[in-house]
Design goal:
- This protein is mainly α.
- It has four domains: about 60 residues; about 90 residues, no CATH class; about 210 residues, no CATH class; about 90 residues, no CATH class.
- About 55% of the residues lie in helices and about 0% in strands.
- A two-stranded parallel sheet has the order 1-2.
- Strand 3 and strand 4 form a beta hairpin.
- Helix 4 packs antiparallel against helix 14, helix 4 packs antiparallel against helix 16 and helix 10 crosses helix 12.
- It is elongated and about 105 Å long.
- The chain starts with 14 loop residues before the first helix and ends in a 7-residue tail after the last helix.
- One of its GO terms (molecular function) is zinc ion binding.
C-alpha cells in the first residue's frame, strides 16, 4: 500500500466529483493504464465514481468495465445483511433508508468486550467488590447485598427516556415500545418533588394542550434486556447490587464477567449484550425479581409495575438464545474478514455462500416465529443482491480460484454452486494463465537472445540410454491442469496463500 495523494472534496461530494479527482490524480502520475479495480465500501457514490473512471480509462487498457472494477467491502456487506435481519425485528432501521455502517465505521470492525474500556472499568470494580465481599461473613450481607431495591436516584430517573447514558438513541425491538419510555426508571415517577409524572403527567399535559396521548406498547424482548443492562450499569450502587446477586446465583466460571451495554449503531455490541446476559441469566432474573424488595407504598407500586414490564419469561430467554444463534456466524465471519496480513478477496465468495447457507437453515429452524422469519427473509434478500454482484464481476471469483486452499474444485460442487460458476472459474484461470504466459514467453525470448549459447547435446553413453526411451507417449499436463489437479502441491494452511505462491515459483514456469 502506498498513498499517492490526499484529495480535497470541497462542496461537491458526488460520485462524479470523486471520480474526476481520482482520475486526475492517476493521470498525473501516469498510472491510469495500470488501474485494475476501485476498492471501497458499497455506498452508491463509490459505484458512480467507478463508472466515471471506467468511461475515462476505457480504451487505454483491457477489462475496464465498471462491473469488474468495482470491488466492494465484504465487511460492509455483513453489516448490511445483519442490519436487514435486525430491521425485521424492529431493532434497526431499514438499511436502504439508513446505513448504520456509516456511523459504525468510527469504531473497530469487531467488538470485543475484553477491549472495551468501559467494560474493563466495570470488571475492575466488580473484582474489588468481590475482594471486599470475601472478607465479610454470610450473616453480615443481606439478601440484596446491603443495597436497596428499585431504581437509582431521581436524577437518574429523569434522564431522557429514549436514550442510554451515552446519549445514543435506543432502538426499538421485538414487540417494541414507541420509544416514549424505556422502563428503566419507573420507581418514584408518579410523584417526585410535588410534580406529577409518568402516565398521569402525560394525561394532564394532554388535557391542557388538547393533544391525544400515544398508547404505549409493551417493551420487546431485546428492549427489556437492554433496559435491564442499562439499569444495572447506570451507577455504582446498582452495579454492586447486581454483583452480589451474581456471586450468589451464578456459577463460579462466570462470576468474573459483567453485563455489556449495547450501542444502537453497532450490531455486534447487541450480540455481546445478549451473549453476556445469557451467561449471567440467573443474576438477571433475580435482579428483576427483587425490584420490589424492601419497598412499600407508592414506591412498591411503581417498582411492581416496572418488575412486570421487565419480566423475561422462559420463552423470552429462548427467543434471545435464538437471536444469539442467528448472529453468531456473522460475528465469526466479521472476525475472519478483519484479520491483518491475510488477503480477503479470496474469502468473499465462500463466506457469502456460508452466510446464505446459514440464513437458509435458520429459516427452516425458526419458521414458527413471525419476527425471526421476517428478519431472515430480509437478510436473505439483501445477501442475494451482493452475491449476484460478486459473481457478476471477475475479481472475487478469480481471487478465490487463485487461493490454493480453494482452487476450482470448490466451485464445481453442485450442492453449493450452479454448474456455470465452476465452468467460468476454469475459464478465468485459463484466461489469466494465457495472458501472463504471453508476457513470460516474450521476456524469456528477449533474455534468450542475449544469453550465452547453449552447449551441444551430450554424447555420453548415459545420455544415449535416456534418449533411447523416446518421446513420452502422452503429453504432459499444462500448468492450469496441474494446478486444479487434486493433491498437486497441497496448501495445508488457509492463511499462507502468499507464501504458497512464492514456493510454487519453483514448480511453475509462469506463476
Amino acid at each position: 500500500e502506498c498513498p499517492i495523494g490526499l484529495l480535497p472534496l470541497n462542496g461537491d461530494h458526488s460520485g462524479n466529483a470523486a471520480g474526476k479527482l481520482l482520475y486526475k490524480a492517476l493521470k498525473r502520475r501516469e498510472i491510469t493504464k495500470k488501474l485494475l479495480a476501485n476498492a471501497g465500501d458499497n455506498a452508491s457514490v463509490n459505484g458512480v465514481a467507478t463508472r466515471y473512471l471506467s468511461k475515462r480509462i476505457s480504451g487505454k487498457q483491457d477489462r475496464t468495465n465498471a462491473r469488474d472494477m468495482q470491488v466492494g467491502c465484504a465487511a460492509h456487506v455483513v453489516n448490511l445483511v445483519v442490519q436487514a435481519f435486525l430491521s425485521g425485528l424492529g431493532l434497526a432501521p431499514d438499511p436502504d433508508e439508513e446505513d448504520l455502517y456509516e456511523s459504525a465505521r468510527a469504531f473497530d470492525l469487531v467488538y470485543d468486550p475484553e477491549q472495551d474500556p468501559e467494560v474493563q472499568e466495570q470488571l475492575a470494580a466488580a473484582k474489588e467488590e468481590r475482594r471486599l465481599a470475601a472478607k465479610e461473613t454470610d450473616g453480615e450481607v443481606s439478601d440484596d447485598g446491603g443495597v436497596s431495591s428499585g431504581s437509582d436516584t431521581d436524577e437518574d430517573e429523569d434522564k431522557s427516556d429514549g436514550e442510554s447514558e451515552s446519549g445514543a438513541a435506543r432502538p426499538q425491538g421485538l414487540g417494541d415500545s414507541d420509544g416514549e419510555d424505556d422502563g428503566r426508571s419507573d420507581v418514584g415517577k408518579e410523584q417526585a418533588g410535588g410534580k406529577v409524572r409518568g402516565s398521569a403527567g402525560r394525561a394532564a399535559r394532554a388535557a391542557r394542550t388538547g393533544k391525544k396521548t400515544r398508547s404505549r406498547k409493551p417493551l420487546g424482548v431485546v428492549d427489556k434486556l437492554h433496559t435491564i443492562c442499562v439499569d444495572v450499569l447506570r451507577s455504582e450502587k446498582q452495579r454492586k447490587r447486581f454483583c452480589h446477586l451474581q456471586r450468589k446465583y451464578c456459577k463460579k466460571d462466570v462470576q468474573g464477567l459483567t453485563l455489556v451495554r449495547s450501542m444502537p449503531i453497532r450490531w455486534n455490541t447487541k450480540h455481546a449484550e445478549i451473549e453476556r446476559a445469557s451467561k449471567l441469566k440467573e443474576a438477571v432474573i433475580q435482579w428483576v425479581d427483587s425490584l420490589t424488595h424492601g419497598l412499600t407504598g407508592q414506591k412498591f407500586t411503581a417498582a411492581q409495575r416496572k418488575k412486570t414490564k421487565l419480566y423475561l419469561a422462559p420463552e423470552d430467554w429462548k427467543l434471545l438464545e435464538d437471536i444469539l444463534a442467528i448472529l453468531e456466524p456473522f460475528k465469526d465471519i466479521t472476525l475472519h474478514f478483519s484479520r491483518k496480513g491475510v488477503p480477503t478477496i479470496s474469502l468473499v465468495l465462500p463466506l457469502y455462500r456460508k452466510m446464505q447457507t446459514h440464513v437458509k437453515m435458520s429459516q427452516a429452524t425458526y419458521s414458527t416465529n413471525a419476527d425471526l422469519r421476517t428478519g431472515l427473509r430480509l437478510a436473505s434478500a439483501k445477501l442475494e443482491v451482493y452475491m449476484t454482484k460478486a459473481l457478476t464481476g471477475r475479481y472475487y471469483l478469480l481471487g478465490a480460484v487463485l487461493h490454493p486452499y480453494i482452487r476450482v474444485a470448490y466451485f464445481e460442487n453442485a450442492d453449493l454452486w450452479p454448474v456455470d460458476v465452476g465452468q467460468r472459474a476454469r475459464e478465468l484461470l485459463d484466461e489469466v494463465y494465457n495472458e501472463y504466459k504471453i508476457i513470460y514467453d516474450r521476456q524469456a525470448t528477449s533474455q534468450a537472445t542475449s544469453a550465452a549459447p547453449r552447449p551441444a547435446p551430450s554424447t555420453s553413453i548415459f545420455a544415449a540410454a535416456i534418449r533411447d526411451a523416446g518421446a513420452p507417449t502422452s503429453p504432459s499436463k499444462s500448468e492450469p491442469e496441474r494446478y486444479v489437479q487434486p493433491g498437486w502441491h497441497p496448501c495445508d494452511n488457509e492463511d499462507d496463500v502468499l507464501l504458497w505462491w512464492k514456493a510454487s515459483v519453483l514448480q511453475s514456469a509462469v506463476c
